[in-house]
Amino acid sequence: MEDTRHLLELMEEENSRGPQPGGTIPVTMDISGMYTNIPWQEGTDAFKEAMEQRVCKAVPTVFLITLLHLVLSCNLFTFDGTLFLQLFAVAMGTRVAPTFACLFMGWLEKKMLQDWRGRPPRLWRRYIDDIIFLWSGSKSESL
What is the DSSP letter of 48? Predict the structure, then answer.
């Protein structure tokens, strides 16, 4: 509910700035099955990049990455009475999953927006894997 209120306030604020360019449309995106589709290597790269930006590195990044790999690779779950070991991506019930996903999505988002060629989207906002932006370009520019 809080996120919905924030989104509505954000849109109201954008509207108060004046009319949008003609043809502007709101666009939403969602990563389907995000947690279970984050590759460990790219996720670890995002984690490492974020950890290297810390001011206090009393706990070395390499140690944190070792702990992260333990969390990622030691997840057991049961389904229909059978025990499984998570071999790829992030187990959804893991406490580190939302933070890992946010770091990965921020890392991916940064790369995507840096490489964007053409008219940039307007009002880009993301919450974990849910993205909303305003697009005022043509259909051919969006491809």
Answer: H
For the chain, the domain total comes to 1
* Nearest Cα to Cα of residue 101 among 80, 81, 73, 129: 129
Q: Which domain holds residue 42?
A: 2-142
Backbone angles phi, psi at 56, to 5 degrees: -95, 115
Q: CA 43 from chain center: how many Å?
A: 10
What is the rounded distance in angstroms from the CA atom of residue 24 to the CA atom of residue 18?
Answer: 13
Position 127 scores a pLDDT of 85
> Phi, psi at residue 38, to the nearest 5°?
-80, 115
What predicted TM-score, i.e. pTM, was given to this entire model?
0.76
Q: What is the dihedral of CA 38, 42, 44, 46, to 10 degrees?
A: -100
* Residue-wise pLDDT tens digits, 29-58: 888 888 888 888 999 999 999 999 999 999
pLDDT tier at 3 (50, 70, 90 boundaries)?
low
CB 46 within 8 A of CB 104: yes
Residue 23: count of CB within 10 angstroms of its CB: 10
- The amino acid at 8: L
